[in-house]
Design a protein that fits this description.
single chain, alpha/beta, 5-stranded parallel β-sheet, 8 helices
């Protein structure tokens, strides 16, 4: 093996850096991103210019979907969630965000405010879904473990998440999404 090279075994041990752009629009006591930061499970950003230029940014309005093959870029550049109020989501995502903007496939929210609503995920749920799809299941579970309600997210979405994680391209993912939703 070449010194400094990465093997597939090394990729299993590594996990991507997790970031949240905190726009501070929600109640801090209920904000999942704020709790991730308090538990040192995510690094906070307070301005869009702090987002690493090649990071994967979870954006519900992006045209490209997150796939398992994005795991290498996530390991290199990190995964970013934009923490904003759903009432102001159009404004938050209306500007061009740095990084590679990717959307998640359809999933059901398990958070107490939007339970069962498709695609209305908390920042925590979005990050966990992204990590799960890219094969970082332990990290996804670690994030979800800090809220009592959050492990239900995997229970509620396990079959779609497994199918999305196995999709080799956007067409396969779209077919899996159509099968479930």
């Amino acid at each position: 093996m070449i010194p400094g090279s990465t093997t597939s075994r090394d990729l299993d041990i590594q996990v991507p850096r997790v970031y949240v752009l905190q726009l501070r629009q929600d109640d801090p006591k209920k904000c999942t991103a704020a709790k991730l930061v308090r538990f040192r499970l995510a690094k906070p950003f307070y301005r869009t210019r702090q987002i690493p230029p090649k990071s994967l940014v979870l954006n519900p309005f992006a045209s490209t979907v997150l796939l398992n093959k994005d795991r290498v870029d996530a390991l290199s550049f990190g995964l970013v969630a934009i923490d904003c109020s759903w009432e102001r989501v159009q404004t938050a995502f209306g500007t061009q965000l740095p990084g590679r903007n990717l959307k998640l496939p359809t999933l059901l929210a398990s958070n107490p405010i939007n339970f069962g609503t498709p695609n209305k995920l908390s920042s925590l749920e979005a990050l966990a879904a992204g990590l799960y799809i890219m094969g970082f299941r332990e990290k996804a579970n670690q994030l979800l473990s800090i809220f009592k309600w959050a492990p239900n997210f995997l229970t509620l979405n396990l079959n779609p998440l497994e199918a999305y994680a196995c999709a080799k391209d956007a067409q396969e993912l779209a077919k899996a999404e159509a099968d479930f939703f």
